[in-house]
Automatic annotation (TrEMBL):
This is Sulfatase-modifying factor enzyme-like domain-containing protein. It holds the Pfam family FGE-sulfatase. Residues 376-625 form the Sulfatase-modifying factor enzyme-like domain. It comes from Oscillochloris trichoides DG-6. InterPro entries: CTDL_fold, Sulfatase_Mod_Factor_Kinase, SUMF_dom, SUMF_sf. GO terms for molecular function: formylglycine-generating oxidase activity.
Amino acid sequence: MDMDVIAQQQHLLATHRQRLAVLLAQQAQLGSAHTPPGIITDIAAARAEIRRITAYLREQGVAVADLPDDAEPPAMENPRPPAPGAVHTIQVGNIIGSTGVAIGDGASAHVTTINHYHTPEQRRRLEDYLTLLRHLAATERARALCDSDPPLTHGLPMDTLRLAMARAAMVWDPLADLEQAQDDDAFRRSLVAWLLLPLATTKLMLYTLRSEHALSRLGSPKLSALVLSEAVPYVRRSMILDADAQRKAQLQLALKLRDPVYAEGCARLLTDLTETEEGRTALAVAFQEYQADGGASPPAFIHLVAAGLFGGAVSGGVLLAATAVLRSFVADDEGENAPASSPGRLRIPLTPAEWRAELGQRNQHFGAPNGYWCYVRPGTYRIGGWEPKDPAANLRLNAFWVARVPFTVAQYAQFLRAGGYHTRRWWTPIGWAWRTKRKIEQPYRWQEGSFNSRAEQALQGITWYEAAACGAWLAEELRFDLPAGYTLRLPTEAEWEVAAAYGPRGQRFSYPWGEQEPTAKLAVFNRKWEEGAPDVATCPAGAAACGALDMVGTVWEWCSSDYNKYPQAAHALAKGFITIDWLATPVSVPLRGGSYYSSETDVRCGARDGVLPDFGNLGYGFRVVVAPPLAHAS
């Protein structure tokens, strides 16, 4: 055995493996549809050399370990043979993104399906791509995008359009498209339609003709003309789209994109956004914003780009199958242990230690709370517009957690024991003035007969001042345990409405449980006021999609917005609640959801009431949220 030759061959093996790793990384970044033939040839050559050297070393008695990338991913164990003359376009084997292309004759194609999903490899590819995005987010180009949307007065606003589409990509949920699409091309068209929605349903394309020229450059003139024609009626009607309307607009646009004249434009648009430095920079900025808004794990779009699945050569159902697999991977990646599909056991915290424990148990799984806190996703939501002539507003909310049930008698008793009515710092200035002038020492009808008399009974007879003071006390108790950048407080109207009304796919319901008319199994209402409020969680069947209970009926719930500035300022704190100024100009405080003695008219997600903050009615209670601090409404 010549040891010099052995050492030389070992060095060559290491060199070829390093070269292969670089080539595979390039292939993953470019996407299978746009990988140059030279790179594909070099990958095959590198693997051939690795096989030759490995065989030689083993013949000489030298142990050589096989690495995952040394060989091409295996195909299915029993693949259906291609039809005579067919092109075996692409194989997806153990590692998504490692593709082999074999050229043949004929117009038809046979594509194998996924037989394995190699999570460690996809994690590596994802981490590499996230590293790239972090690098791009720190560039001057990204900083210019972050400062504000680029002006439309100089040059073509290509970055403006890219950023609008990148932001849409962050909130794209492939589930509905997976259910509707018949093949990879249809799925790709649905995605492009979603990316184009910010251009086709706003004024962005109508600000200047340069927007039309910019989209022509990014996609094609025909695609630009289509988007411009779609935008005109939306702008003319000043329409505000909720999730259902967005879905309808997406489907209509995707249907029109079936025309072959738009195929080239769609392909170029996806390529620009996912494979050019400018497009990736827009994605980097949008992803940075997504994370700042509370997005935990990377969205599905980022996973698919990292896996190299948007290339035109990906066909034959591979994109659909891979997306289904990756979607499960995204769900699993949101936490080390995925929760059950149903909410966990309700635990109502009383002592500070129990509150801290519940904060520690909270998760970021919509619809599957682990205890007391229900997670609500970040996003832009339609607020208001419950009746045909009602105003509506699209408001962006950060991620937050809403209490699963209204505050109970036992929970409020802890506030009383802590000296809640004798500690000024927990009260707003005007609230403290009201309390001391009226000599208020406890809520209205506290522990009188059927009112406020049971531990798990929903607290009732509370004013806004008392509810806000209790929230401030609890926020102070938990200040070292709350997530960074978050506090504990009463919800805004927008937060309450989103927690009560929105489903897992962004659809909005009339009732927390859906569209079925309320019954005694779904909510507590139409009872006599003398009975007192019910215990919380009496109607588990009436849970909202996020997992929150008693969102309608039981007690009206105090919010922190200005009743008269709904819906446009439903996400902001009404300044008049915390200063003495409201004495000159009274500000009404909103309540939502109806109470146990309301009629079914008020037991719905759109029901509102508004009174002064010092008014305490037996139907009034509250629940708290863990959410970012509020800004004042102007």
